[in-house]
Amino acid sequence: xxxxxSDKLAENGLRILExxxxxxxxxxxxxxxxxxxxxxxxxDAIIIRSSTQLTEDVLAxxxxxxxxxxxxxxxxxxxxxxxxxxxxxxxxxxxGNNIAAAEHTLSMMLACARKIPQATASLKSxxxxxxxxxxxxxxxxxxxxxxxxxxxxxxxxxxxxxxMRVVAYDPFISEERAQQLGIExxxxxxxxxxxxxxTVHTPLVKETRNLINKEGFQKMKDGVxxxxxxxxxxxxxxxxxxxxxxxxxxxxxxDVFEVEPATDNPLFGLSQVVVTPHLxxxxxxxxxxxxxxxxxxxxxxxxxxxxxxxxxVPAVSPEVLERIGxxxxxxxxxxxxxxxxxxxxxxEIDIELHGELLEKDTEPIILSTLKGLxxxxxxxxxxxxxxxxxxxxxxxxxxxxxVKDTGxxxxxxxxxxxxxxxxxxxxxxxxxxxxxxxxxxxxxxxxAIPEGEIILVKNIDRPGVIGNIGMxxxxxxxxxxxxxxxRDKLGGEAISLLHLDSTLDDKTIKALTDLPNIxxxxxxxx
Length: 526
Ligand code: NAD
Ligand code: MLT
What we know:
Blueprint: E1 2-5, H1 11-20, E2 24-27, H2 33-39, E3 45-48, H3 56-59, E4 67-70, H4 80-85, E5 89-91, H5 98-113, H6 116-124, E6 142-146, H7 150-161, E7 165-169, H8 175-181, E8 184-185, H9 188-194, E9 197-200, H10 214-218, E10 224-228, H11 237-245, E11 249-254, E12 273-275, H12 284-304, H13 318-341, E13 348-355, H14 362-378, H15 387-393, E14 397-403, E15 411-418, E16 423-431, E17 435-441, E18 444-448, E19 453-460, H16 465-475, E20 480-487, E21 493-500, H17 506-513, E22 518-525
D-malate binds next to loops.
């Protein structure tokens, strides 16, 4: 396994990868996009921070990349849909630097309120200008927080310690969560109208780009102080500039910018603006936290296939995996079974979860089913990450249903696939909570293990059929490990499911198909 570290990573992360786990690591920072494209094909994982740009073009050059690990939070430098299409997991470390970023936010707000950077620069230049640096207090003032996730909620807590009233806008958090945080949830316009200080803590996405603009500034109190330690672009810089020059906004504290690195931003010319060069996460503690977290997450995935903190696939922690692992195997193998018995183009799949399955985390089970179904059709490029997209690309309709009734079983997974000409269905369960079993295929009740080399024979229920199959395989040196039968009625249609010790060649399949009373023979590899 080879890992590329393309942005600076704290030493402890490298030690965990190389020394503790024997992973081969190359540290190559500051690569131009063309240089990165030229080498990325050789790596199984890449660890980045905010500098490396993983665009669609760069990702197109990956050959064996399985995972992108962001030591930090923001992923605006990664084309996540492009990574997902290629089946690459994208993960970050949401907890590692949130204290650092929240503390930086509070520091910037206070620095701006009390003009500390301006006063420092003035005094160091030999001037003693006490009257020039009159500030404002935060005590008893209202702080408006936009986005109360990891960092916003810590900012709320620390601001309450400073005896500020905290109001917030976040359409995705519940009233209950707001109560836990002791904050008042308002509309965006009401936050604008009520706050003396406004700080943003959302991701930069389509919906949050220019979230604070000219119209927003007009709705704010005169002299409001604006803080952005999240992402440049959430606040429109041109409009902020105008609002400060007009006196509407009293000051701004900015750690992040629309274009970074930022060295000649017009806002730097305004005395009311305090700035830092994207230092939110720049503490020794935060850098060690994110380096350790991403190194361990990458190892968990590369060595144990455990997915943690992924943004493009549901998390499957070791605990969840232990609980649902056997269901994932069942789902993948039932999907694989159906794909191989279908001689028609699959247009729809119904995935029915019955009984105990309803209490499980069902999304990984659905993804495993799709992965199993699509791999025989599309090859090994299909994985947990891109299974849904691959199904969409093939215009396969997916219907998911949760059903309480389980008949004779405590839990059942039922898959039904349909094409223009035909349809097939398979019912599966777990015996003893771990052993996968097919318990029904189309109209046939059967009990078979969905694993290994299998042949599915459809025949007319007549004496001698099984003996003929045994003799034909025996003559060709193919050993039968197990054999199960099912039939719809005496003398009607029957199926036999045989587990073999080896794969059948085309000639043997033909020989079996030519036997009397045989309707079809299908070879299935699970
Ligand atoms: P998070 O995902 O935990 O929280 C984001 C919050 O924003 C969520 O509660 C979400 O509901 C809310 N949100 C999303 N869209 C919204 C919208 N349209 N309006 C209002 N709220 C919305 O993220 P986090 O870990 O708290 O990080 C917040 C930001 O801080 C991110 O942009 C991240 O990249 C940035 N960050 C910057 C630094 C730095 O060095 N300056 C360090 C760490 C994180
Ligand atoms: C982040 O999103 O984690 C921050 O921008 C910090 C960084 O890695 O520079």
